[in-house]
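Project standup — Tuesday

K.O.: blocked on the structure for the chain from last sprint. Re-posting the sequence here as requested.
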Amino acid sequence: KRSTPKRLDNHHGRSDPESQAEQFARLPQNITFVESTLTSPCLAELEDIDSMYDVLDQAGLIGDQIRYAESNIASRTIKVEHNPNLITAQNVANALMDEGGYSNVTVLTDGKSENLILPSSMGPIGSQRFRVDRRCRLLRFHLPKGLGLNIILSGIFWIISLFGHFVEKWSYLQYAGLLSVLFGIPSVAKKAYRTIRRKHFDANCMMVTAAFGALALQQYDEAASVSFLFSISEYLEDRATRRARKALDTIINLRPDHANLINPRTNEIIIVPACELEVGSLVSVRTGDKIPSDGIVVEGFSQVDESSLTGESVPINKEAGDVVSGGTINAGNTRLVIRMTSIVEDSAVSRLIRLVEESASNRSPTELVVDAFAKSYTPIVICAAILMCTIPWFYGLDVGRRWTLNGLIIVVIACPCALTISTPVTYAAGLAATAQMGIIVKGGARLEALGSVKTIVFDKTGTLTEGKFRLVHLDIVGDQKKRRDVLELLALVEAPSSHPLAATLVNAAKNEGINMSSASSVVNHSILKGEGVTAEVDGDRVYVGNTRLFKRIGFYEALDSAQKKKVTQWNEEGGTVGFVGIKNIGIVGMFSVADGIRKEAKSVISSLLNDDINVLMLTGDGDGAAKAVARDVGIPFENVRSQFLPEDKLHYVSSMLGFSKRKGGLLTKKELLLFCGDGVNDAPALAVADIGVAMGEGAALAMEMSDVTLMDSNLTKLLYSIKIGAKVIVTVQENIVVSVVIKLIVIALTFAGKMSLLGAIASDVGVMLLVSLNGMKLLPGRRGLCCKRRNAYRQLTSQHPQASAGEIV
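H.V.: unblocked you, prediction finished:
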């Protein structure tokens, strides 16, 4: 874990950006490391970026000279934290070219000359993996990770013992099996001992029993087979699990370590821990730098790589006034100056990390059933094996030996490793695949549920539509107020609201030169759920809301027939109609705002309907606006429910749950209901549905209450997550069937006298490897997003070999 300086506070309990920069400038400069940036065009072509770390480590540079290194494909840069007194940035570049075969590695930013100093106490989270034990360096680079020397020796002596088994004149070589057991079984025996102390009996205990049983029968080659092959299976288990978890760890490691804080007075740049940034701080984000937290660009034009949050590989153009998210990377050639709008703990990347960490702890019902099955049937198998290894001895030595060997084979083949390993690996792979596409699923239970969705209920505003309104019509009613007065009332009453429509009305007022600061104060502001807002302006009660609100307070009936006809016309055009009213006066204005349909909505709805998934839409808007959106996206009118309050959505979703098939076994199909929304008003429905899906651009409460979050609010990702959920279910079912069938075949061969311990352990390891690889096929790999990005950059680089990183982006 990294250690960071204590938070700096002033006498008032908080710090402004200017005083914060000055406090960091006064820190004792116990400096040994600086941050330099290198660039290389070949980063776009490398199949394994992690090889960079091995190159630096093999060159003996990791440790005192270099404590951390990180590469980014999008910007084709390498960030290196090094001690400039021991190794210069140019020396690091030379090492990558000489030792690793990297081409054209150049120094983009020299940390020493730019004075980009890092406090020595601020070691990165990932730096622990670079602390190399030099005594183990030789083995580290010649043995696969996790494959110990004892396993290698066990395998060598096992192979020698097999010669004694198959070649009669070399029968004495069977005794090499004793050495194989000596090297292979101790680590397994230690785990078995700890398990027995907890009064349990697991696969380790089974294998120790089988190995010592074979030794007792003087089947040394068979005992060696059990010892070595089970050790190999444990290595493969660890490798599969580590690879599945590594994909999730890459998400957790997105949090920036430090930031380049700008002193507002002197413009001096000071490197500080990112967690110490305050709202309003100005930070400098150079090429290849991570944006430390959410903020707004105040200077510069560049491209930002948002793939860490959204899964989209194409960098997005950002300029002054644009919003950026923490954890994303400046992939262009120009520095960005960003004003922080949130602290690191509240940023988008921190929310993403919290959701990923939560997902890792939520196990699916299938995982729990598999574990429960393994725990319950293991004692039964052991009891049967004990009977097979004891009673037959009363019928003679030959009978006893044969049935004891059969009993040991049953112990081996009954090992539940294939299921207990492959099932969590499959779920971890599915969670990693969705997370790297910008979809956060809160655990295997929710991922499994996604694959069983048969009904989807969509909210309209901000879900099927973009939630970006524009004012289309504004008509003045009566002669009490002028257009400017009505716009001013709209802006004053809507300004405190968080609804997307409110921002549209406020901006419309600003565009017509309305200055709210000169108006009277607004008091007693309150939100009327599903209706609108109200407040007191200069002592008058003002209402802004929909038709339902103004019918309830009795204002709507005062409109003449022409005005009501216009309201109907606006509704039929698909607009959201609202009114402005004043108590004791009535309606003084009516308006219509339009919201654009998400460009992917129609194709997603079409795909869902083609997959026989029932699609519905709920909205608080009028019937005309609801049907207009339904017509544009392809939802049947009979599946549209309009003028719904938040409690109406909750009750409707609750009633729909009564028709869903929520129970089922491992091999039976459930039929679940999914609700997809984005606002605070959707939170109750998100919580009560079988699966709640929140849009990442929506309210924080909606994301907290949901089971799935689409970080970039792209509905295509919803379709992707449903398909991944279905693939996970199919993969788990395949693994269960394959494991059970092969075990039954081996058991049948055992009682037919055609099976040996070698065949049993080989089949067990083979099945475990087969089902684990089947589960790992869901992991993003050579055919996934990363490979596509590498291929795209390779193509662009070959077409434009002289282009800079920013031009390629």
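K.O.: great, moving the ticket to review. The CA atoms of residues 154 and 183 lie 5 Å apart. The chain has a mean pLDDT of 76.
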